[in-house]
From TrEMBL:
GO MF entries: transmembrane transporter activity
Gene3D superfamilies: MFS general substrate transporter like domains (1.20.1250.20)
CDD domains: MFS_NepI_like (cd17324)
Originating species: Actinacidiphila oryziradicis
Chain ranges passing through the membrane: 95-113, 133-153, 165-185, 191-210, 222-243, 249-268, 302-323, 329-348, 360-379, 385-402, 423-441, 447-468
Protein origin, superkingdom: Bacteria
Name of this chain's protein: MFS transporter
UniProt keyword terms in alphabetical order: Membrane, Transmembrane, Transmembrane helix
InterPro entries tied to this protein: MFS, MFS_dom, MFS_trans_sf
Keyword Transmembrane: yes
Cellular component terms (Gene Ontology): plasma membrane
Membrane topology: Multi-pass membrane protein
Length: 485
């Protein structure tokens, strides 16, 4: 029957479909992913709501205007423009914006300490290398969250998981604000890193909910928000410290992250798990098997590890450079320097478009080479502020482009495994960041700023031989990923 649906079917359809593009219940997806309309009332009832045709027990599919080809049962809807090509625009833009903002605010909590390192050395009377342990602890905690928490997104509602992690960040932030000793602040940084894994839960949600034709751009948008959060965390921390002291940074952040948790639940619909009935231990084991089975994933992990290690090798000791000779910046100026990196956010969407068009390998090589080249002006930046700013812009631009290309490739793996894919990739990514931070602290203490630049360039160049040997291969395996692993 394709006529008017019965009243029971209408009641079953109206809620999920109306909420699909705004705030919806269980079967909704904010970016137009296919969803099952529960079979209620008449078995073959069909409803037409908001330009979409929904049949009981079938997937939501475009109907009428905006449909370039007849709907095929079981295929996800793809938004199309007048020419019949996939577009990245359409309903759900506000949900994507909220997701990007939540990612940024979540991950910012582990980066507030970077511009505060000189102040922390004075406040706790510790050497520079000891203070950098706060940054390293945040990155290690984040890697632990990625390894142990993010996989849960494949078997539980990702929106609920992310919002609860944001709520849990608040007490960790308050503990940081009240820290009587550096070790307490370091422990709280590790806890904040675990809670900040909410950002990658949301990245996996975005990838799973986006049609393949626009996935690179959608993920690039969310990653742009995450990048902005990392960079603006430094600006925010520096400005608040200059006005109210470093402890006020964490108190204010606790209020903001709590508000964002409620905003996330209000705007994003609940997400039915990609896999049901999974056991946590089997899920973690399945994550390891996934890493062993997917060569593209392993290769992209190497690229991500090296790129973020290089990035962290620059940013972690940069606060010591800027507060010392010849710059003598205060905390506010050190934080404001991070604005130079905001230009890097602009590379996310172009890199996503290149990857969507089949040029992910070329994009990766270009952006990694750009990161290597950025350390030439960064080396000159030890004495010239203009060169330091130019190098920071190039470094951030290269990192964001390489990151977006990596994620577009790994998220072509089966959607049921997206949280586990995120776990494997981002765990290696942030382990790289922790290695870069720890190594640069030691190198800066012994060899100064020139040694840091040599280290950063070497880390960025390390995966280029692997990239040069890469050949175009299928991104996904034909072996299915088990839903309950």
């Amino acid at each position: 029957m394709t006529g008017e649906p019965g009243p029971e079917a209408e009641a079953g359809a109206a809620g999920p479909v109306r909420r699909l593009f705004g705030c919806g219940p269980r079967w909704s997806a904010p970016w137009g992913r296919e969803e099952i309309f529960p079979a209620r009332g008449r078995a073959a009832a069909t409803a037409r709501i908001g330009g979409y045709e929904v049949a009981a027990g079938q997937r939501l599919r475009p109907a009428g205007r905006g449909l370039s080809t007849p709907p095929v049962a079981g295929e996800p809807p793809v938004p199309v423009g007048a020419a019949g090509t996939a577009t990245g625009t359409g309903p759900g833009g506000h949900a994507l914006a909220v997701t990007a903002a939540a990612c940024g605010l979540s991950v910012a909590s582990i980066y507030y300490a970077q511009p505060l390192l000189p102040e922390l050395t004075r406040s706790f009377h510790v050497p520079h290398a000891a203070a950098t342990a706060v940054v390293t602890a945040g990155q290690v905690g984040y890697a632990c969250g990625l390894a142990l928490v993010v996989p849960l997104g494949d078997i539980v509602d990702r929106v609920r998981l992310a919002s609860r992690l944001l709520v849990l960040a608040a007490p960790a932030l308050l503990l940081a604000a009240a820290a009587p000793a550096l070790w307490v602040l370091t422990v709280s940084a590790g806890l904040l890193g675990i809670a900040a894994s909410a950002s990658q839960v949301l990245v996996a949600l975005t990838a799973a909910a986006s049609p393949e034709q626009i996935r690179g751009r959608a993920v690039g948008t969310v990653m742009g928000g995450l990048t902005a959060g990392i960079l603006l965390a430094r600006v925010f921390a520096g400005a608040v410290t200059g006005l109210l002291g470093w402890r006020a940074v964490y108190v204010t952040a606790a209020v903001l992250v709590t508000g964002m948790a409620f905003a996330l639940r209000a705007v994003l619909p609940q997400q039915a798990p990609q896999a049901r009935g999974g056991h946590y231990a089997r899920l973690l084991a399945g994550t390891l098997r996934l890493a062993a089975a997917e060569p593209v994933l392993r290769r992209r992990c190497v690229y991500g590890f090296a790129a973020f290690a290089s990035f962290s090798a620059f940013w972690t000791p940069s606060a010591f450079l800027l507060t010392g000779d010849p710059y003598h910046f205060g905390e506010s100026a050190v934080g404001a320097f991070a604005l130079a990196g905001l230009v890097g956010v602009l590379s996310a969407r172009p890199a996503g478009r290149m990857a969507d068009r089949g040029h992910a390998r070329a994009a990766t090589g270009v952006f990694l080479a750009l990161m290597v080249a950025s350390f030439v002006p960064l080396a000159l930046g030890g004495r010239h502020l203009g060169a330091l700013i130019a190098g920071a812009v190039l470094l951030d631009f290269g990192l964001r482009g390489a990151q977006t290309a990596n994620q577009q490739q790994i998220y072509r793996l089966p959607r049921v495994a997206h949280s586990r894919v995120t776990t494997v990739y981002m765990t290696s990514y942030f382990i790289g960041g922790a290695v870069g931070s720890a190594a640069s602290a030691s190198v800066y203490a012994h060899f100064g700023w020139p040694g840091v630049c040599v280290l950063g360039a070497a880390l960025a160049a390390a995966p280029l031989p692997l990239w040069a040997a890469e050949r175009d291969r299928p991104t996904t395996r034909t072996t299915p990923v088990e839903d309950t692993e």
